[in-house]
Amino acid sequence: MTLLHRPSLFILLFWLRYCQKHWNELKKIADSDGNDEVSLDEWYKYSENIINDQKQFDQYVIDSTSRLVELIDSDNDGKLTLENYKRFFTAYGLGASEEEAIFKKLDTNGDGFVTKDEVLKLVREFYLSQDENSPGNWILGKF
C-alpha cells in the first residue's frame, strides 16, 4: 500500500511539510527580538497584525486553508463531504466524536457538502467574527 492509498497519512505528512515551511517564514516575521524563538507575546502580536491586515490574512491564513481543502478533497470535486471532514479530524488528531453534528453546523445550506468557498468563509468567521454562535467557530470542532 502506497502513501497515496493512506489518505490520512498523506494529508498529515504533506501538511506537516507545508507547516514547517510556513513556520520558518513566520518565525522570520514574528521573532521580533531575534532570539530564534517566537514567544507567546510575539505570537499574539503577529496574529493581531495578520488579522488586521487583509493582504497578510489572505497570504497566510486563506492560502493555507485553500491548500488544506485541496488535500482533504479526496476526489477533487471542490466539495468536502462528511467523510472528508472525518478524515481531516483523524489526520489532525482532533478525534471528535461529534463530527456529524459539527459538519451539519458547517454545512450552512444543508446540501451535504461544504465547498472551498464556503470553507474560506467559515475560516474568516473563525478568525474575524465577534459572534460566538458563528458557524465558523466550529471549523476545528468543539472548543
UniProtKB/TrEMBL annotation:
Q: What is this protein called?
A: EF-hand domain-containing protein
Q: Which residues form the EF-hand domain?
A: 94-129
Return the InterPro entries for the record: EF-hand-dom_pair (IPR011992), EF_Hand_1_Ca_BS (IPR018247), EF_hand_dom (IPR002048)
Give the organism the record lists.
Anabaena subtropica FACHB-260
SUPFAM superfamilies tied to this protein = EF-hand
The domain of life for this entry's organism is: Bacteria
Q: Where are the transmembrane segments?
A: none
Q: What Pfam families does the entry give?
A: EF-hand_7
| Coiled-coil stretches noted in the UniProt entry, renumbered to this chain | none
